[in-house]
Design goal:
The chain is 38% helix and 16% strand. It contains 2 helices and 3 strands, in the order ββααβ. The longest helix has 14 residues. It is globular and about 35 Å long. InterPro entries: DUF1059.
C-alpha cells in the first residue's frame, strides 16, 4: 500500500503544505530529505523513525 507524509500533520512555523506519496521507503527517504533541507532538521535515524511512525495510508481519490 502506498503511504503519504503530509507536512500539514507536523508542527512547523513555515505552514508547509507539501505532501509526499509513494512506496513507504520512497516516502521516508524523500520526507527525511525534505525535513532536513527545508525545515532544518538533522537527518538522523531517529527523525526517519519519527516520520515512519506518522505515515498514513494513501487513500486513492476517485473523480
Amino acid at each position: 500500500m502506498r503511504k503519504v507524509a503530509d507536512c500539514r500533520d507536523y508542527p512547523s512555523d513555515m505552514n508547509c503544505s507539501l505532501a509526499i506519496s509513494g512506496e513507504e521507503e520512497e516516502v521516508l527517504r524523500a520526507a527525511s530529505e525534505h525535513a532536513s533541507s527545508v525545515h532544518g532538521h538533522e537527518n538522523t535515524p531517529e527523525l526517519r523513525e519519527q516520520i515512519r511512525s506518522m505515515l498514513k495510508d494513501d487513500v486513492p481519490q476517485h473523480a
